[in-house]
What we know:
3 helices; Collagen_mod_GT25; Pro_4_hyd_alph; 18% helix; alpha+beta; Jelly Rolls; oxidoreductase; single chain
Amino acid sequence: MDFGHLVNSENFNIRNFHPDLWQMFDNRWDWERAYLHENYSQSLNESNKIQMPCPDVYWFPVFKERYAKEMIEMVENYGRWSDGSHMDTRLESGYENVPTVDIHMKQVNYNDEWHEILRAYIQPLQLRVYDGYFNDPPRALMSFTVRYRPDEQPALRPHHDTSTYTINVGLNRPGIDYQGGGCRFLRYNCSVVDTRVGWTLMHPGRLTHLHEGLRVTAGTRYIIVTFVDP
Ligand SMILES: [Fe+2]
């Protein structure tokens, strides 16, 4: 017999755009059913091989398409994109060395939720692919949604990230929502251009993985980026 389940509606904040996105603390079961990719847990199974599109660059299905769609709508509804310049008052230093047109998770009041995602869903994946590295909980000072488009910021020059490893979540479809785009790792002359919605790239942030954001020639490309353990 299935008697259903109880929903905790105490903290359902209708001021948030797509308030279900915030529900992982109060209604985890519903949140996972709505947003976690149906194949997420396959990556945790030791007998399954993890896909590695470039050397030491891995990717995993983490989020459903619904999550990607609602995150895009939520940040676009907020709408206060940075201007892509070096001066960034959101940062303690006030200076961003490799600026993008972006919105920080903190700005849309999604910092606690995003850190919970890093702890509960991303860290277990990291433990599978970078054996022996464990920092609990994963720390992140920089988590944001980036927007690439031809008439705004279309690409990003080669750089290292301020991270031990970087998370890069594809939110929309190459060849349909935008043309071009992707991430190229210069040392290996290897690019990931066949971005999959809700799939998450994980790559080392420094030293070996100098990388660039490839040019978007039409449409708008959205990704979520997090620098883990700066
Ligand atoms: Fe980067």
